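Incident log, structure service

09:12 report received: a user says their structure output differs between two submissions of the same chain.
09:20 pulled the input from the user's history:
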Amino acid sequence: MARRTAFIYSDALSRHTLSDTHPMKPVRLRYTYELLDAYGAFDAPNVSVVSPRTALDDEIGWYHTAEYIDAVRRLGEGDATVDQLRFNFGPGDNPAYEGIYDASALSTGATMSAVEALLSDEVDAAFSISGGLHHAMPSYAYGFCVFNDPVIGIKRMLAEGMRVAYVDIDCHHGDGVQHAFYDTDAVLTISLHESGAFLFPGTGHTQEIGAGKGRGYSVNLPLYPYTTDEVYLWVLREVAMPLLRKFRPDALVTQLGIDSHFRDPITHLALSVQGHAAAVEEIASIGATKWLALGGGGYDLQAVARAWAFDFAVMSGQQLSAEIPSPYSERYGIGALRDVDEFPIQAEMIRDARTFAEASAQSAQRLVFGVQGLR
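09:34 re-ran on a clean worker, output below:
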């Protein structure tokens, strides 16, 4: 039976601009909605579109400091007296812009709307595409992220006594989420990402396995530049899937960043849209009764739309045609859902990526499998 699946969306989520030159373009959310609408995906009887609400300060405060929340609000109102550098705002990754608090609280509220739909048993799965802002820290912005909605959503689930598995397939390490749950065994965090030796934020090494009660519950699988679908899926199946099945979470939370795509302009992995969807399908096979999916990175805008449409089809049990329907295809010049061309990678680079992935898998297995009772 197909999952009852919610898509959390409002055009208000896609209207703000971080800066004219910033790679994070919220319009990608509207493109994803338009593509799914062109496919008729929202007409399926098991699918609902849910409008987001704005997160409350109290909810944001489950992870972020009151001083930081107040600073973001004042920055959004144009208060020039705020010390931007103190909270890691300024030109570059984290610009302060008019309405930054409202946009960030709405994005966080979208994830809370998804969590509430799951906890009330209205749906079995929910996709908050504006969420997944996994870098934000308690008292400062980081890596394009202002409020850490994955942490806040997970904390709501923990308040219900749930065991949560968080799987992050963004190209960047899920450092903020790892930080929040590093010392607890109630949350298993797994992050597959381009190695911090090559990419922001420079963390996510296999030796980062948690502390105290959380030792063995933080799992990192760093990957080499130009890792392809085949190697990516191998390491997922070799390490992440046994851990997920052993952990048996009450709720699965997935961060589905698609900056791992081979056309992404700021990263170096080499996944295809269909490879990304295959990873999502693999993770979903653990059969958790509640599934919260979040967006994340992704800076080739049409790769984002195609990948997240494909992912939502996996969630909701739909088959999307290989040919993108008009008028979407005509409007945006994108004809195929799947990637039909291959990224040219030298054989030596493919071998290096495989060797690197094998080393990461072996290290993670050695460090955490014993703690989890897998060896």
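09:41 both user submissions now match this output. Likely a transient worker issue. Closing.
09:42 reviewer note: The chain has eleven helices and eight strands. The chain has a mean pLDDT of 97.
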